[in-house]
Amino acid sequence: MRPLDRLELWVGVEPTVSRIGDSVQDQLILSGFHERLEDIDRLASLGATRVRFPVLWERTAPSGLDQADWTWADARLARLAERGLDPIVGLVHHGGGPLHTHLLDPEFVPGLTAYARAVAERYPHLGTYTPVNEPLTTARFSALYGHWYPHARDDHSFWRALMHQLQATVLAMRAIREVNPGAELLQTEDMGLVSARPTLREQADFENERRWLSFDLLLGRVDRDHPMWSYLRWVGATEREILWFAENPCPPDVLGLNAYVTSERFLDDRVGHYRGGHHGGFHGGNGRRAYVDVEAVRVQGQPIGGPCGRLYEADARYGLPLALTEVHLACTREEQLRWLHETWQQAQSARADGVDVRAVTAWSALGAFDWNSLLTRQNGHYESGLWDVRAPQPRPTALAQLARHLATGAPLGPAQAVLEGPGWWRRADRLRFPPEGPLHAETPDGPPLLVAVPGRLGERLLEACGGRGLPARRLALGKVQTALELERPWAVVAAAGSFGDAGHLGALATACAARGLPLLLLSSAQVFAGDAARPLLESDAPNPTRAGGMRQRLGEEAVLAAHPGALVIRSGPLFDVGETEGFSAALLRAIRAGRPFPAPTGGAVSPTFLPDLLHHALDLLLDGETGVWHLPNGGAVSWFEWAEMLARAARLDPGRVRAVSPARLVSPASWPALASERGWPMPSLEDAVARWSPVPATRQADPRAPEYVGGRP
Question: Which end of the chain is more exposed for a tag (fewer CB within 10 A), N or C?
Fold first, then answer.
């Protein structure tokens, strides 16, 4: 592979077919990529040059090669060729092949070899392959930690799983090259770094050496003098098994390093230091000493090294072409943007220093499901990517804009402003424990978000911005022109109906439109009458019957008339952690005092958890969305059903909730239920209520807060 004149953007979709016990989960079906041929056009629109594309063994030939179905791959590979996207073909991705085999089965090797030959014979023009993605990581998770099938938990099984994957890689490439002699191997691994307290330095040194084992074996470097020789012999590897790789080297043409915040780990034998929960941590041991394996970013005073450090290490060790083949972060939108942008900058810096870095891969183009549990639970937890598939058609996010900007120089939009601030992995709030070593932290920077939202709603929005590293300041509507000139914000947020006179909102919208500033207006379902027979959509015409709803409708109309590119977000009745007013607060007071709590059984409502509303509203603002959006937590329930859910979550007697006719309680009737025809990014109401719970033993953190990030231990 010849050196490149510039850093390329590659793109990939998450294709894992995971097997947990007897349960199988296909990410390509979950994301819709399996069905939508037009997703190839979406990938091509980024200006990327290559795509990591799955032609997976278990999907194509689950019942054997004689019954292989190539229809799906045929159509998509043809479309890739039409759109000028060069595929990097993956054959196994965190899987173990069809159900009749697995990583500890010796037949995995000839089976994958035969499948690789069949792929090459059907598509002889394909030039780059990754027969097995992340073999070391997959061997750890499947055979050392027991997370994935076949759920082994010992070092000998770890070796056999690794050996089978790498033998299959060598023989698969041999079979492919018999058809296409010029075919190249791009071998990937999740390449992290382990640090530790001095008492665990030997363990950290071992793990830092083991992380290179896939590459060293393929390169034929593992012999009796290799640092891993004694370990491999100790776990039961025979000399013949180990030396087979030295006798049959298959050097990768490109090394693919997968870059995650959580790939850098810290080992600490002060186990009691982490009682009460350790974010991203795992209790473990080496037979001599117990320790906690925790995300380094949560403990170390110095920020993590990130992908740049791994690029320099790999270059010094191998001197081969490199690519960052997965760059993904499951977090709030600006943090996703910062991680991709920082990684791109680090790759550029390494190239400037002479490291042969070919590309950065924007990963999980269509997002990923259940990686927050390492695929061990099927809860439908979704992390959006360059597109958000929780919509009638995949919706491009600000990540897609950034990827296109990196590849082609296209304008970036509102997201440009947030790139000036440091990611959470560089701020002081990254720490969950007293820092190891001197603390180095950066402070949020960049143009602010101006918040023209009064009361608790405005306070909670400012808090949400603070937690996301987004500078934000209050804006008084009477001082709009002065504030916009002095502060030079990247966007403005206001609330419909909060200031009485829609003229103030209209003036604000006019000023924002004149400067090309995005404007977010927070509104509610009260712009509709409360007696709707079905949940109302964004295209339904507002028809308020109460004064508050009428003010909100006038505010919406004034803003959209003056600023057609404004974003208007409507919610249902809000509830929040620690609130002292509102429906949930009244319910808690009544039941705790031993009083019944009346709640209507008729009609329907769409409750909205305030932290979810604010975080997703900010994401949509950064995505450059415009027009009206409805953001409730899931579907419609009666006030009575909602009250029972809240009582149970608070561990109170739901029998204290008394069913009454809507006619008995006039106020709730002014809230109709909402639905959306544009997208469904909000968590379910059940999930939101569980996180709202005021009971300390069951309270859960906001799932979009920085400690909930994608990655692997």
Answer: N
Q: Are residues 526 and 605 in the same domain?
A: yes
| 150: preceding bond cis by omega (within 30 degrees) | yes
Per DSSP (E only), the strands in 417-518 are 449-452, 472-474, 491-495
- Structure-token pair, residue 526: 């009260």
- Residue 340 in tokens: 């991709």
CA-to-CA distance for 88 and 91, rounded, in angstroms?
Answer: 10
β-bridge pairing 23-26 and 17-20 = antiparallel
111 shares its domain with 191: yes
Locate 351 and state its tokens.
Answer: 């190239």
For residue 413, the model assigns a pLDDT of 87
At 453, phi and psi to the nearest 5? -130, 120
Amino acid occupying residue 422: P
* Alpha-carbon span 559 to 496, nearest angstrom: 9
Question: Per the structure block, which two tokens stand in for 55?
Answer: 């032609």
Pairing relationship of beta strands 657-660 and 608-609 according to DSSP bridges? unpaired
Instruction: Tell me the C-alpha distance between 107 and 421, whole Å.
Output: 51
**Does residue 426 contact residue 341 with C-beta atoms inside 8 Å?**
no
**Domain identity same for 334 and 475:** no
pLDDT band at 283 (very low <50, low <70, confident <90, very high): low
Structural domain of 53:
8-429
Residue 434 domain flag: no
Q: What is the pLDDT of residue 669?
A: 52
Q: Where are the beta strands (DSSP E) in 346-440?
A: 357-362, 368-369, 382-383, 387-388, 395-396
Number of folded domains that form the chain = 2
Looking at the structure, do residues 413 and 479 belong to the same domain, yes or no? Answer: no
Residue 1: what pLDDT? 53
Two structure tokens written together for 72? 């799906």
In order of 443, 444, 619, the CA distances from 429 in angstroms are: 10, 11, 20
Q: What are phi and psi of 25, to 5 degrees?
A: -130, 125
What integer pLDDT is reported at residue 701 of this predicted model?
Answer: 38
User: Pairing mode, if any, of strands 8-12 and 50-54?
Assistant: parallel
- 198 in any annotated domain: yes
Q: Evaluate whether residue 702 is within a structural domain.
A: no
Closest by alpha carbon to 66, among 137, 131, 30, 118? 118
SS3 category, 398: helix
Six-digit token string for 589 = 């007071």
pLDDT for residue 143 is more than 90? yes
Percent of the chain with pLDDT strictly greater than 70? 94
Question: Is residue 351 included in any domain, yes or no?
Answer: yes
Token pair belonging to 529: 């009458």
pLDDT in tens, 230-271: 999 999 999 999 999 999 999 999 999 998 999 999 999 998
Q: What is the structure's pLDDT at 380?
A: 92
- Cross-strand partners of 521: 494, 568
> Which residues partner with 600 through β-bridges?
660
Token output for 561? 């008339």
Residue that has been written with the tokens 């004689």 in this structure: 66
Which residues contact residue 686 at a Cβ distance below 8 angstroms, ignoring those fewer than 6 apart?
Answer: 634, 645
402, 415 contact by CB (below 8 A): yes
Q: Distance between CA atoms of 172 and 194, rounded to whole angstroms? A: 32
Coil, strand or helix at 491: strand
pTM here?
0.94
pLDDT at 713: 37
Q: Is 573:646 a contact under the CB 8 Å cutoff?
A: no
| CATH (domain of 458) | 3.40.50.720
- Choose between 29 and 546: higher pLDDT: 29
Q: Is the dihedral of CA 589, 590, 591, 597 positive or negative?
A: negative
